[in-house]
Amino acid sequence: MRTIVRLLITALVFLFASHAIAGCSYTYDQSYVTKVIDFGTVIVQRDTPAGTPLVTVNSGLIHPDYGTFYICSEAWLYQAKLGQFTTPTSLQGVYETNVQGVGIKVSTSTGKLPPYDVPVNGGTAVILREYTMTLVKTSVGAVGADYITPGAQMYIQANSVNILQVNIGTAKIIPVACSITTPSLVFTLGDIPLSQFGHNVGDTTPQTNTQNMGLNCDPGTNINVALMGEPDRDVPTGDVLALSGKGSAGVASGIGVQIVYNNTPLTVNAMLPLKTSAGGLETFPFTARYYQTQADVLPGDAKASATLQITYQ
Description:
The protein has 313 residues and is mainly β. The protein has one helix and 23 strands. The radius of gyration is 31 Å and the shape is elongated. The chain starts with a helix and ends with a strand.
């Protein structure tokens, strides 16, 4: 029993000693600080170049009015040390995480990168402002899919004793399984004589224009598309885009624009499954045509814009 008591007393003395430095103290009402930086969900495109910052989050002020934080009566060493991720990448200040292809960078409000030591004169207090963490793509191609391990990534120390730490909180990395080879599609239908339109709602023009959307995907990727835009309210089926500036002077009336895939008009703002990729280059042809929305068509500009939103699973 006597031996056990000695061990317990020794452990307690050591524990308390690790948090006390002779002649050093927090200033004002300050105490040990743990800042947690949450990244949330981070989506990473496969074709994002290596070295690209993915997301940057600031810790917020350590002290609300930039007040002093720590002071020692004698000369001391102010230190910034790395936490759990310490393997450097080829990028300055960026260290590998547990997720393949994703690195992390920590910096001060002045851009200083740990680890570093700064000698401080006795009686001089330090001011700790704020810190920033950045996730960086470190490899070519797809990154891993996982949570970055939470925990301390930087410690601020006084004479090698921790006085503050900055932690990684939530960080879920989701790689995108495809890259787009045609970032924009432009459909040109040209000038169409008014005489081509009759009085039948639902007629379409023989003039069409087809553009191919190219993707390069991993095998087994489920590819979906949604045509995001303003539907023409005169068409209850919701598969016709309204002309830009509809109802304004100089804009044609009585027609809208349809985008067709595989002989089926795309419903505006609705998801359509395209296919499951076998891997490699995929090509999807989309066709634009005019659609008569009213019995009478009046001449004018007939332009429409929309976004093809591609999702992968």
